[in-house]
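AB hydrolase-1 domain-containing protein
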Amino acid sequence: MTAFFNEERNQVTLMKLAVRKRKIGIIPVLEVVDQDQLYTPLPLIVYYHGWQTSKELVLTQGRKLAQQGFRVVLPDAQNHGEREAPMSQVPSLTFLQSIYTNLFEFESIVDYFTQLGLDNGRLGVGGVSMGGMTTCALLTQHPEIDVAACVMGSPSLIDYRKQLEESFKKRKISVPQDYENLTSWIPYYDLALHYDEIKKRPLFFWHGIHDEKVQFVQTDRFVRNNLGPEITFRAANERHMVKVPTMDQVTDFFVNHL
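Predicted structure tokens:
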């Protein structure tokens, strides 16, 4: 239960949030929404977790968004959470497969709530790390997305693939010789490659300068090359970690634009 202070009435108003487990086909999700608006059409936000975590790990962000009147859906990515499976010994296969499956499943998630009459036509997408990469990839193909937020994820899957390849070489880990062909879907979903071609929407980036997992330079380069009034970029003196102030910035961005 969340408390809000109403200055006009000089009293505290309590909002009770509902957190409901749903299964959309085979996709386990958490739906977070104001208890009093369970069946009210609301702006819908699909928010994706990061690598080797789960939907429960972005529940705090989901609650913060729901407190502001959004219906928030937190899916478990393939190989994660309730869908956990052994990791492939082939480098990056499980990681990229998880993003790829997110892309396949996105429309099913949105359609589910649309068919129930629970969205009002406004759609936001966001995510952390792998979820941020998913978000940026979705923007290349889905003009129906109105607002997006990428937290410490790369807007360039091509650059991130290069980062992975360089890491494998340093660690003397072999990859298939046709690695780029096996990941040939990536250029179609690279936001940096296609940003000039797509509809511009409010887009929020947060990235730690000292990020040791997803290179800060990938986001920084994208923003420098594409900076316009629709882009908000917050660079922080942080590593690969999301703290409460970042969650608040994400929430404020959706409140102001969705």
